[in-house]
Each structure stands twice: as C-alpha cells, then as structure tokens.
C-alpha cells in the first residue's frame, strides 16, 4: 500500500473533525478531505463558526483549511462523499455508533447501520485500492463484517485492507490529546498486506507522534482495547462514586479518599473525581456494548459486572436528586432552582448523556421552576434535550417544558430569587476556590480564549438575590464550601458530610452526646 497521499474521512463529528484537522495540520504534504451527509455541519466546518467547541481547535483548523503565506490549504470539508472516497488511498470511517434503540439488543448493542452504509459506499465508489480504517468505536470483530461487505460489493481487482485505529481523545481536551497522545493504536491482520497497510497509517501519525508511541497489534485486540479502555475509565468513576455514598454517611471526605488512594502509584490519581455521574457519548454506550458482547458470548457474570458500572452511575444521579429534595424540606413545588452547567463536562458544548438532563427531569417531576445557565451549550440544544428526554412536560404535568424551565445567558439571572443552586458541570467560572498557578505545561497548552477565560462568578452578589435559606448542591466539588458558608450558604458536596450533618456532629461533640455516625 506504500505511502498515503490522499485521505478521506467519513463523518465530520467530534472525532472526525478534530482528528483530521490535526493530521492535516501536521502533514502539509497530505490532502485531507472530511465528508459528511449533513450539509449544515459541513457548512459550519467551512465557516468561522465551527460546529463544535473545543479549546485550540479553531487555530488548527484555520491554518490547514485556509492556508497561510507559506503553506497551501490541505484540509477540506465537503458533502461530496463519492468524490472524496474515489481520490483517497486511505479512508477513515468516523461515523456515529450509538446504542441501538429498537430490535435485537435494543438498549445495549451498538447501532452499526451508519458504519455499514459508509462501508457500502466505499465499496461502490472505489476504483483503486483503499486502506479502510475503523476510527469509530465498534464491537470486537466488526472488521470481519467490513471485509466481507467490501469484497462482496467491490469492483474486481480493487483491493481493500481494513485496519482498526480507535480514537482515545476526550472532549474538552481533544487538541492536546491529539497533539501529544499517550499512544496511537493500530490493529491489522498479521499478514504482509495487513502489516504494510498498518505501516502506511503509522507513517501518517509519525508526522508528529514519536514512533515508540505508535503501537501495532492484531485487529481484534485493537477493537476490544477501545471498549476495554473506556470500561476501565468509567469503572474508576463508578468506584469513587460508590465510595462517595459511604463518605456522605460516615463523615469521611471523598476528596481525601481519592488523594490517599491516588498517591499509590499502582492506582494513580486520574479519573478519581467523584461527581454527580459520568456523561458523554462514549462511556455508557461502550459499556453497554461490552455488556451485550459478553451476553452474546454466554458470559452472564461478565455482563453483570460491567453492567453494574452503569447501574452505579444511574444510582449516583438519583441519589443526588434525592439529597436535594430532602434538604429542601421534601417539597420543590414552585421553588426556583438554578442549575449551573448543562454540558457533560467543562470546556465542551456537548450535552450527550449529560447528568444534567436526567437530574433536571427528576426536578421537573417535583414541579420545581428550573433556571439553567451554561457558558457554552446553545439554548436550542437545551430545549431539544429536555423535549426529547422521556417527555419532561408530561412528567411535570405542565403544558410545555417552557412552563417550568427557563434558560438564562448569565449566572446572576439564573440565580436571582432561587432557593437553591445546583452545580452540574465543573466550569471554572463556578468555582470560588483559590486559583492554582498553572504549571509550565498547562500554560503552554493551546486555548482559543473563549469560555475557559470567563470571569469567576461573584458568589456574594448571588447571595444578595437569593431566597433564604440559600442552598448550594455542588455535584462536582468545585466550590470551597467553608467560604460559601461564611456568605450564609448551606452547602452540600458530593462525598462530604452536608452542612446540617456537620452542625449536628459539632453539637454532639460539644454536648458529649456523640452517636455512632452510622
Ligand atoms: P458524531 O455524531 O459527532 O459524528 C458522526 C458524524 O457522522 C455525523 O456528523 C453524521 O452525520 C456522520 N455520518 C453518519 N453516517 C454517515 C455516512 N454514511 N456518510 C457520511 N457521514 C455520516 O460522532 P462522534 O462523537 O464523532 O463519534 C464518532 C465515533 O467515534 C463513534 O463511534 C464514537 O464512539 C467514537 N469516539 C467518540 C469520541 C468522542 O469523544 N466523541 C471519542 C472516541 C471515540
Ligand atoms: C472519554 C474517554 O476519556 C476518552 O478516552 C474516549 O476517547 C471517549 O470517552 P470523554 O467522555 O470525552 O472521553 O470525557 P472524560 O473526561 O473521560 O469524562 C467523561 C465523563 O466522566 C464526564 O461526564 C466527566 O465529567 C466524568 N468524570 C471524569 C468524572 O465524573 N470523574 C472523573 O474523575 C473524570
């Protein structure tokens, strides 16, 4: 398969767009064309307003897409799928693989129809040999089906080689993740043609990634490694979240637990932040896919094990809502609740599987008046998510979602007259903690100067406008609770004893009537 000169990527989403922008940026000699069926998405990629928000993305796209004095444009976005496939030597398939919503495996298995239609398109259009690369996250052995379809439909004499090259970027940090990846994984058949294709793809990454970080292995290991990595990462979050429940009941502090355990180098400190529950388009979907694969392989115990990671996550979201209801005297009817943050994590406008969606649905069921502020999520996206989520309006017994939800474009309007503030995304602007001086490495990380630099909110200004008693439920442990208590807030954090609890304990200590905490 020799050297790659012309790349096509099918799917201009959160993965296809940023990944190809970096590939093009770092390989000025390559022509990279990203195609999609969605005309509005492609138009946005060709405009100054990219369809996704990702710190550092804009500059990377603009340099490759628009060129400069000393480089020609080499990144193109188009809806002409056929033309881009026809001229490519290597085609990334980076389409969505969501959880199936109906039919066999509904609610667990991956929906592979988008992958299959992309593969059929490649087979129909190709008149020259192609390396076809699975970039989408797929069930183990999907490459088998791809090879079969390609050879059944492909024109005589046209050869296809299928590689697996899963993507490990996380949203919000996609650009630094792509620029300095922990590893690039390439899976191929272990024969001459498979290895030669793998080496051609490795050469593309070698444009900026050190060779020792480019790992090659067999196809099936590579496919399964992607599901495994996400399952292991999500499992850590469910583990710390399960511990957070024990902390809340005993007076231990989950941040101290994470620190104490994370300093053990065998455990490591990352992905141990207790939270209101993980969200995002990948973790839940990929664990459910792994669960389904285990079931189809007749491994019910294995399926139950992975399934429990998702179960704990659902439990964590419900537990948080229940704590809010209990603290607000078991009635939310007509109480204004300010929700700060709607995206599933900071530094992204993506809301897929955001914990905010199910928590707002729960609060709506209690007939609260919810007022939402998020620095990056577009208002129409919020309406779409709330409408689409099990029909919130019928849960609330109100006419329309707009009868009990408002979307504000600043934190102060969201919080005015509220009984409680609920922090659901860890955006920096919600924090009142002392700002840590950035390390040299952090200071050098690219940012595009948007949301991450929004000023911190003024908590004392908010306090002046709220109903008494004022509550803060911090689903991300971004606030310094003691400082807020000095302003008169009652603060409840994940995995820490609440204000009431702390006062009760103090009283018990003073009167000597200490009871066992459990
Ligand atoms: P996405 O929904 O943002 O983008 C997918 C794009 O593919 C959409 O724009 C859609 O219109 C397009 N598409 C679908 N079928 C098509 C076809 N036949 N022809 C042309 N275009 C088509 O999805 P994403 O978040 O970029 O995820 C893509 C894949 O990467 C998924 O398998 C996902 O699991 C995996 N992944 C995602 C992330 C992440 O952070 N989002 C990280 C790693 C891996
Ligand atoms: C994840 C994987 O990290 C990435 O490698 C893969 O390619 C795609 O899926 P992403 O979902 O974008 O990336 O973000 P991630 O940072 O992993 O966070 C996922 C969710 O877990 C978010 O809701 C985040 O807030 C939450 N989280 C993360 C925690 O609750 N605690 C943590 O310690 C880390």
UniProtKB/TrEMBL annotation:
Active-site positions on this chain: 282
Pathway: Nucleotide-sugar biosynthesis; UDP-alpha-D-glucuronate biosynthesis; UDP-alpha-D-glucuronate from UDP-alpha-D-glucose: step 1/1
Domain UDP-glucose/GDP-mannose dehydrogenase C-terminal: 338-481
EC number: 1.1.1.22
Keywords recorded for this protein, A-Z: NAD, Oxidoreductase
Reactions it catalyzes: UDP-alpha-D-glucose + 2 NAD(+) + H2O = UDP-alpha-D-glucuronate + 2 NADH + 3 H(+)
Record has NAD as a keyword: yes
Biased composition (Polar residues): 441-455
InterPro entries: 6-PGluconate_DH-like_C_sf (IPR008927), NAD(P)-bd_dom_sf (IPR036291), UDP-Glc/GDP-Man (IPR017476), UDP-Glc/GDP-Man_DH_C (IPR014027), UDP-Glc/GDP-Man_DH_C_sf (IPR036220), UDP-Glc/GDP-Man_DH_dimer (IPR014026), UDP-Glc/GDP-Man_DH_N (IPR001732), UDPglc_DH_euk (IPR028356)
Gene3D superfamilies: Cytochrome c1, transmembrane anchor, C-terminal, NAD(P)-binding Rossmann-like Domain
Binding site for NAD(+): 11-16, 36, 41, 95-99, 136-137, 171, 282-285, 352
Enzyme class (EC, first level): oxidoreductase
GO cellular component, one term: nucleus
UniProt keyword Signal, yes or no: no
Designated name of the protein: UDP-glucose 6-dehydrogenase
């Amino acid at each position: 398969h020799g050297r790659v000169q012309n790349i096509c990527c099918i799917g201009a989403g959160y993965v296809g767009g940023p990944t190809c922008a970096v590939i093009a940026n770092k390989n000025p000699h390559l022509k990279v064309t990203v195609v999609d069926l969605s005309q509005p998405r492609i138009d946005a990629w060709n405009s100054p307003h990219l369809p996704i928000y990702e710190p550092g993305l804009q500059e990377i796209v603009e340099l490759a897409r628009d060129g400069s004095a000393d480089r020609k444009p080499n990144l193109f976005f188009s809806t002409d799928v056929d033309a881009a496939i026809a001229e490519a030597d290597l085609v990334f398939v980076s389409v969505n693989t969501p959880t199936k919503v109906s039919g066999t495996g509904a609610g667990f298995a991956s929906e592979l129809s988008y992958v299959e239609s992309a593969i059929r398109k490649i087979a129909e259009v190709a008149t020259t040999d192609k390396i076809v690369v699975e970039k989408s996250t797929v069930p183990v052995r999907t490459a088998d089906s791809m090879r079969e379809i390609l050879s059944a439909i492909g024109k005589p004499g046209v050869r296809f080689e299928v590689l697996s090259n899963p993507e490990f970027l996380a949203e919000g940090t996609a650009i630094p993740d792509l620029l300095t990846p922990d590893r690039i994984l390439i899976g191929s058949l272990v024969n001459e043609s498979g290895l030669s294709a793998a080496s051609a793809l490795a050469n593309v990454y070698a444009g900026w990634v050190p060779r020792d970080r480019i790992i090659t292995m067999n196809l099936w290991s590579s496919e399964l490694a992607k599901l495994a990595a996400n399952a292991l990462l999500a499992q850590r979050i469910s583990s710390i979240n399960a511990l957070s429940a024990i902390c809340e009941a005993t007076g231990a502090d989950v941040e101290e637990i994470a620190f104490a355990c994370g300093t053990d180098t065998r455990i490591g400190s990352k992905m141990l932040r207790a939270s209101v529950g993980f969200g995002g388009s990948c973790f839940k979907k990929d664990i459910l896919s792994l669960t389904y694969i285990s079931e189809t392989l007749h491994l019910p115990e294995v399926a139950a094990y992975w399934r429990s990671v998702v179960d704990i996550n659902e439990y964590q979201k419900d537990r948080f809502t229940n704590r809010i209801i209990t603290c607000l005297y078991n009635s939310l009817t007509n109480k204004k609740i300010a929700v700060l943050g709607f995206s599933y994590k900071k530094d992204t406008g993506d809301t897929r599987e955001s914990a905010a969606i199910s928590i707002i649905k729960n609060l709506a069921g209690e007939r609260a008046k919810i007022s939402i502020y998020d620095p990056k999520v577009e208002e129409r996206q919020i309406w779409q998510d709330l409408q689409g989520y099990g029909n919130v309006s019928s849960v609330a017994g109100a006419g329309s979602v707009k009868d009990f939800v408002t979307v504000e474009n600043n934190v102060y309007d969201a919080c005015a007259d509220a009984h409680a503030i609920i922090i659901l995304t860890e955006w920096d602007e919600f924090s009142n903690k002392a700002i840590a001086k950035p390390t040299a490495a952090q200071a050098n990380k690219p940012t595009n100067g948007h949301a991450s630099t929004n000023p911190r909110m003024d908590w004392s200004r908010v306090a002046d406008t709220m109903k008494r008693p004022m509550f803060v439920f911090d689903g991300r442990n971004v606030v310094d609770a003691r400082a807020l208590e000095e302003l008169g807030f009652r603060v409840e954090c994940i995995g820490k004893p609440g204000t009431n609890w702390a006062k009760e304990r103090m009283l018990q200590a003073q009167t000597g009537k200490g009871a066992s905490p459990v």
